[in-house]
Design brief:
mainly beta; 48% strand
């Protein structure tokens, strides 16, 4: 079993930056792809970004390309999301997720992630 804990959320003005962290514990050897998702009020949860175990492959949603950067440090069992040029529409609860399939490819579909954190609120004011 894997536990994921997000941190780093908060209130920021439009144009500002935040760095989210996701710390993994438990059976971390079983983690392959890791990803970030977000859910705004009244909306479905949506994919933000994902990163392979090695960190050499990433995928970003079109809405965050060029503004958000995903990274991970396997030695620390931690994944990060550097968010810059934040917009009010980025306001959401951000969730980190871990995939355990070991398919050898980047996973981006929500159903394929087996472990989830509790979420951290990001609020961007205009």
């Amino acid at each position: 079993q894997v536990q994921l804990v997000e941190s780093g959320g908060g209130l920021v003005q439009a144009g500002g930056s935040l760095r989210l962290s996701c710390a993994a514990s438990g059976r971390t050897f079983n983690i392959d792809t890791m990803g970030w998702f977000r859910q705004a009020p009244g909306k479905e949860r949506e994919f933000v970004a994902a990163i392979s175990w090695s960190g050499t492959r990433t995928s970003d949603a079109d809405s965050v390309k060029g503004r958000f950067t995903i990274s991970r440090d396997n030695a620390k069992n931690t994944m990060y999301l550097q968010m810059s040029s934040l917009k009010p529409e980025d306001t959401a609860v951000y969730y980190c997720a871990a995939d355990h399939h070991r398919w050898g490819r980047l996973v981006v579909a929500e159903p394929d992630f087996g472990s989830w954190g509790q979420g951290t609120q990001v609020t961007v004011s205009s």
